[in-house]
């Protein structure tokens, strides 16, 4: 994740990671946690238009009655994950609305306003809480608090599923307009041994498909801007590449994602959020057929 975050925020942003020794266990959905951390890093980057520093810090926290009350949590033991930036900061009225769905301070077309709302929902569902500490001109700290898991790890529970088989240099085209999802998919596939090319919307992705570039598999989000959705890109791609294999990425039920129609041969779907192993294994499985 650290390498992915560094590449995503770019060379103009310094990233410092401060990990606590002997960090306690907690039980959360790994893919949602990774998405939340990457989303916080992107928000921090966007708050520092002239460059700056992002600090990612983990810690064990004992919350007494007063500290727990301030965070609207029961007293007890928690893990904290905090992301701090040296950016513009937020006024109290902006902080108060930060978790509202569709609230965003970004220009039109540059943000849905769903990022912090979804992070808040994930953390609350995990039994934790999110807190924002910010002052205009002094930067922002976003802290996620997760309850300590005191039970024993079951055999096999500690490890995430592994990639069954890595890539062998095959070329995968990834089309997704969400920088977060696209960056994650590209990182997973490159690390797994694939050559990856990418596009942010349908028409530019289709131009790559219609070029002479080698493409063994198309991985595309279903809901794309630019006048062509993922299914339309896939159908157009198969005019010139009838055997092209296609993996749709969607946050919806699979049948809705493909226009309530059956998936053609060589087409499959994976829903967001996905784990590293789920995407890597699905791609390998499709290419081996």
TrEMBL record:
**One GO biological process term:** phosphorelay signal transduction system
Presence of the UniProt keyword Transferase in the record: yes
User: Where, if anywhere, are coiled coils annotated?
Assistant: none
UniProt GO molecular function: kinase activity
SUPFAM superfamilies tied to this protein: ATPase domain of HSP90 chaperone/DNA topoisomerase II/histidine kinase, CheY-like
Q: Which keywords are on file for this protein?
A: Kinase, Transferase
Instruction: Cite the CDD domains for this sequence.
Output: HATPase_CckA-like (cd16919), REC_hyHK_blue-like (cd18161)
Domain (Response regulatory) ranges: 171-287
- Domain named Histidine kinase: which ranges? 29-150
Indicate whether Kinase appears among the record's keywords.
yes
Under the heading InterPro entries, the entry gives:
CheY-like_superfamily (IPR011006), HATPase_C_sf (IPR036890), HATPase_dom (IPR003594), His_kinase_dom (IPR005467), Sig_transdc_His_kin-like_C (IPR004358), Sig_transdc_resp-reg_receiver (IPR001789)
Matching Gene3D superfamilies = 3.40.50.2300, Histidine kinase-like ATPase, C-terminal domain (3.30.565.10)
What is this protein identified as? Answer: Signal transduction histidine kinase
């Amino acid at each position: 994740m650290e390498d992915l975050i560094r590449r995503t925020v770019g060379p103009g942003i310094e990233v410092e990671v401060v990990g606590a020794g002997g960090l306690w266990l907690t039980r959360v959905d790994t893919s949602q946690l990774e998405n939340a951390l990457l989303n916080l890093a992107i928000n921090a980057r966007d708050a520092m238009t002239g460059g700056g520093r992002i600090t990612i810090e983990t810690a064990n926290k004992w919350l007494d009655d007063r500290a727990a009350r301030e965070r609207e949590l029961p007293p007890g033991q928690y893990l904290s994950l905090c992301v701090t930036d040296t950016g513009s900061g937020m006024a109290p009225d902006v902080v108060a609305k930060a978790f509202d769905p569709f609230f965003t301070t970004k220009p039109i077309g540059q943000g849905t306003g769903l990022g912090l709302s979804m992070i808040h929902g994930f953390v609350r569902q995990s039994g934790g809480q999110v807190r924002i500490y910010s002052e205009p001109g002094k930067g922002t700290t976003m802290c996620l608090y997760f309850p300590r898991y005191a039970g024993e790890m079951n055999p096999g529970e500690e490890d995430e599923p592994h990639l069954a088989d890595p890539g062998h240099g095959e070329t995968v085209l990834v089309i997704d307009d969400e920088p977060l999802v696209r960056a994650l998919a590209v990182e997973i596939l490159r690390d797994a041994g694939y050559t990856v090319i990418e596009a942010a919307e349908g028409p530019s992705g289709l131009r790559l498909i219609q070029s002479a570039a080698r493409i063994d598999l198309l991985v595309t989000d279903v809901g794309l801007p630019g006048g062509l959705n993922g299914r339309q890109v896939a159908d157009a791609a198969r005019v010139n590449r009838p055997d092209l294999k296609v993996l749709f990425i969607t946050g919806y039920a699979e049948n809705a994602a493909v226009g309530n129609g059956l998936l053609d041969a060589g087409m499959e779907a994976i829903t967001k959020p996905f784990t590293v192993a789920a995407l890597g294994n699905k791609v390998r499985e499709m290419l081996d057929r």
